[in-house]
From TrEMBL:
Pfam families, per the entry: DHH
Organism encoding this protein: Palaeococcus pacificus DY20341
Residues covered by the DDH domain: 2-107
Name listed for the protein in its UniProt record: DHH family protein
InterPro entries listed in its UniProt record: DDH_dom, DHH_sf
Amino acid sequence: MLIVHHWDTDGITSAALVIKALRLEDFMNLSPPIGEFRLDERIRKAIEKSEKIYILDLNLVHEVEGIEKEIIFIDHHIQPRIKNPKVKQINPALEGNEAPSASFVVSSYFSLWNAWSALGVIGDIGSKAFEIPKVGELLEKEGLTKEEALRLVQLIDSNYIVMERESVEKAVGILLSSTLRELLEYEPWIKNVEAIEKAIQDAFSSVELKEGFAFIEFTSSFNIISKIARKAVWEVGYKGAIVVNRDFHGKGQIYFRISHELKERINMGKIIGALKEKGFNAGGKSEVLGCVCERDRISEALEIINAHLR
């Protein structure tokens, strides 16, 4: 059994939920290269050796169309239907419904709910998750406060933010073998968080504003681009944030997040489609898009986004 999952808290908790639900002992879990929405050679070789594959919280529809293996594809992002008959696609978005996280889709599919289900939501939508009654119920059952839940997400996410792919994959096993209270004191993740917080503070010191939208440009080897966008929209209260990392391990990173109130006015799926038509590696959902590109194509990608905003 192979489980391929996103590198963030939602992907990690979704993988742990699948393993627990199926009571798996013989499995391998892998994450794509951090920040890149693709199946690399390492994952493709693992797919060749696997009998059954789960792909979780990864909007990689085009990547699975040609794979001749049994695949369970669980997601919550905006995406077309998969034509490959070998793939079972489980996504409420296909029917026009929304799920706050892949962890909620996994939990619903397997009828297995615990605090991991809630952490996946918190990882994806932050404090707004606490407005969902189910999230509060699951945390209360575990005896976790809102602050502790937010801290756990921060700790789990630290693995991908410092760009340690192996640590992301190991995090699934750590989650399975530890109590959540133990994880709150897990020293390697605490050290990650301290380094990340300093990098975010440095990047956020150069914000430009245009009509309520924040434009933030920086350079860092840490994958902090989504955290900066969330801080700008969720904490500071900007309408939206376009964040650019000009040199992320030799690539350009673009992250665009809008406030919940603008979701009906800005068609994020259309912008993602326009980027893909031009050959950009882009993905996302109704409130956010991420794009990785060559550094000399950053301006082109930004122009596509700005054209839709105009």
